[in-house]
Amino acid sequence: MAEETFPFTSSTRRALRLQREWLEWEDRRRAAAQQCRSQRCPPSARARLTRPRRCCRDPAVHNALFSGDLRQVQALFQEEDAANMIVETVSNQLAWSAEQGFWVLTPKTKQTAPLTIAAARGYIDCARHLIRQGAELDARVGGRAALHEACARAQSDCVQLLLTFGAKANVLSEEGTTPLHLCTAPESLQCAKLLLESGATVNVAAQDSEVTPLHVAAARGLEEHVALYLEHGANVHLRTSQGETALNAACAGAEGPGSGRRHQEAARRLLAAGADARAAGRKRHTPLHNACANGCGALAELLLRHGACAGVPNAAGHTPLDCALQAVQDAPSGEPEGLLAALLDYGAQPVRPEMLKHCANFPRALEVLLNAYPCVPSCDTWVEAVLPELWQGGPPCLVLKHTPHKDARARSRITTLIMPFGGSLPPSG
Fold it and tell me: What residues form the membrane-spanning segments (predicted)?
């Protein structure tokens, strides 16, 4: 119409056309942005987020939530504001007082949400009621969401409930961890399965430490968790901020009685999936260093069979054999001679004579080490470490003539050496 009425030039008509196209594009952009915002955060959720949460220290509310009293929970939480309140608890904790010079009881306030309390304790009916009243599924009151606490307590029924109602499987805590990072108990295997089925990322790394769920499971010797994560594509080569792989974590976590077998099975699965037995962290500490430092002979032999180097030093200059010697006194109930023999058979060099003091009170371990020398080393640096009671009574207990080694690669045998543990302490010099 305008073109027929007014004598516009061609350049003017082109400018008007471009302006009209730009306005149409701007309208489409605004409509798309509005649609995206509405999908990301529905109107009811936006309205909830703008309202301030109210805090509650009422003992009646605390008792209802922490005891799982469904009738009381239904009576107290009948609206959305109540379901999203902040529950504050105050507890006395010991804290060091520099001014007074001793430990004192200091009150500490902790905040959480009603849904988090119910999910962490497995009160599934209470949790369902709170969700139906409008409790936010992914609220991180106190640092963690309800799904974090449910996984940390291995409450698989509550995990299923939260995921069914739309909780995010990859929700981050304030520490930067996902619920999958908190599946740290053997009983949490079902929780881990539910999370992975709901889209949890198996290779997600914590924000600061860069630890993955595979690192966590390996460090705790959770063989079934390790197998589950590997089935879902976990990467055995990912490293933490300290350069540690999951295999490093498995070997470092093998501490205490009964843990060696579990961590050995976890390490076996990692090695079968392609883990590098020689991978060292930033301090050049290898999985073999960790296994030897924990006195785990079977785990160390597993690593050696998969190519671990028995003689490589770490950043402090300690070899795996040095680490094994330093751990002898920490695990007196074990059999360190087997671990020491395995390291020597796989190429470890004899230790410095002063290191023998670490096993001076373990004749069998000392026998293995002395047989690695081409000649008997000086005893000036270690013989004084022998306990006096070992010199009192009994037959000679250290004969280095034909020490049995499992591997034919064991080196020289000393012809005969008898330490007179049945007599008096030999004169010095």
Answer: none
